């Protein structure tokens, strides 16, 4: 059986260069590839186009790349928790392409499936559809959206095996699955790396065919983006 394991985050990111387009899984701070983001910061690569549901917070997640002005363009669906992101966007330092959340997911899935484009009703009649082809189907208007083209996809899973098969846990199964196989190279970091064949085939969420590199991650913080609690009753 093919082994796709690499020894740590350094070899996993081999080939990442300035100006590349990267996909990064996660939703908020849940299920983000913390080790890969940390290595991108360490490498100092710049002029990146990042595709992710959101941009993390000021001091964690993709916010770390924003601090170092490593991101040239951000393609996301929600950006409301990052003050530095807002500052860079309003000052013109950062190019931003806001995309409806479902469209973002579908552009990932289309890329993985080999579909160059698809029609969706999301965004028709709004700024999202400006400059895009529109077509009527059964009396309803749809907007043509193109599949993403990315160099690397970085995802985070709970468990994986040496063949690249992945299992996600809870809500960390968000944008990670559709980003697997959606780029030229998919890199998976996992909390627990097992020998090939150790995972129950019926529990696997993503088969190894969609993963090129896998490594055992470490030091996960798993921060809570926003904690809301009720005052203790007297």
From TrEMBL:
This is CoA transferase subunit A. It comes from the Bacteria. GO terms for molecular function: CoA-transferase activity. Gene3D superfamilies: Glutaconate Coenzyme A-transferase (3.40.1080.10). Keywords: Transferase. SUPFAM superfamilies: NagB/RpiA/CoA transferase-like (SSF100950). Pfam families: CoA_trans. Belongs to the 3-oxoacid CoA-transferase subunit A family.
